[in-house]
Amino acid sequence: MDSFAIGADLGGSHLSIGLVDQHGRILDYQEIKIDNLASPEITLDILAGNASRMKEKHENVKALGIGLPGNHDSVKGICRFSPNFPQWHHVEVAPYLSRVLKMPVFMLNDVRVATLGELYFGAGKGVKNLVMLAIGTGVGGGVVINGSLVIGNEEAAGEIGHMTIDLNGPLCNCGNYGCLEAFASGPSIAAHAAEAIIRKQSVKLREKIKSLEEISAKIIAEAAGEGDSAAFRILEQAGRAIGTAVANLAVTLNPERFIIGGGVAQAGEPLFSGIRKELEKRLKIIQPESISVLPAALGVKAGLVGAAAYAFLKSEVTIL
């Protein structure tokens, strides 16, 4: 009999939850809008209600896996804090849900589980050593060595966005200066685009928006695709920042593949062009062509599928 796991991806405004089989196929899916300012109990009860429905509807559901932004103690199932949920401090997520659902519950950082999703069912399938970068509002990551996800002493392995890539760089939200996130996150790219519009350097971008608040990586990519040189340059510069981090990771970990996910990764060729150029510039000890840099394959479902994969792994169920 096939085994199933429930995967949940808990974001700042939406909860995605689904029943996943051992092949990574989503057989039951629900997306629910949530209030990130609500108490943990309210949000967890919404999650529990949907998980309970899936558990009752399907047989042989082994466990629930959860991807949640922030810093956690995955062994105890405790969320220490989450930037997306201001009220979540030392919340016993897994113990609470396990009691309610009467099933094993496992929790991990959202980008780490997305990395597992890509490893087992996406762009990293068949690869033993890889690094994933998720470029969005922030920059997260995950590291896989010899087929195993690296967690780290404080479960912070993969916080690639806070790697310093410029000693004299701008202030990052974390308080450090020169972090990758300060150069390549969605807000930093949007800020550069806004500056280009204010300086009247980009006609296409100015035509596409009514206010500066509407700027997104998607709009910048559209302008770049229509020949706007300023838009192309902004995305390529973000790619160069990512490429610098990738080069550092390449000589530190020597993985065979880097996977670039998140909303900003959808900017496409200008971003990946910048990454490739920086790798060719910086990699001397190893050959740039020995490393593949690919876009993520699972899109917004990577976290959900990866959370289910994590539940399978913790339950010692074979992933097919």
Question: Any overview of this molecule?
Answer:
Helix content is 38%, strand content 24%. The two termini are 13 Å apart. The protein has 320 residues and is an alpha/beta fold. The chain has two domains: 4-117 and 300-314, ATPase, nucleotide binding domain (Nucleotidyltransferase, domain 5, 2-Layer Sandwich), CATH 3.30.420; 127-297, 2-Layer Sandwich (Nucleotidyltransferase, domain 5). Helix 3 crosses helix 10, helix 5 runs antiparallel to helix 8 and helix 8 (229-253) packs across helix 9.
Gist?
About 40% of the residues lie in helices and about 25% in strands. With about 325 residues, it is of the alpha/beta class. It has 2 domains: about 5-115 and about 300-315, Nucleotidyltransferase, domain 5, CATH 3.30.420.40; about 125-295, 2-Layer Sandwich (Nucleotidyltransferase, domain 5), CATH 3.30.420.
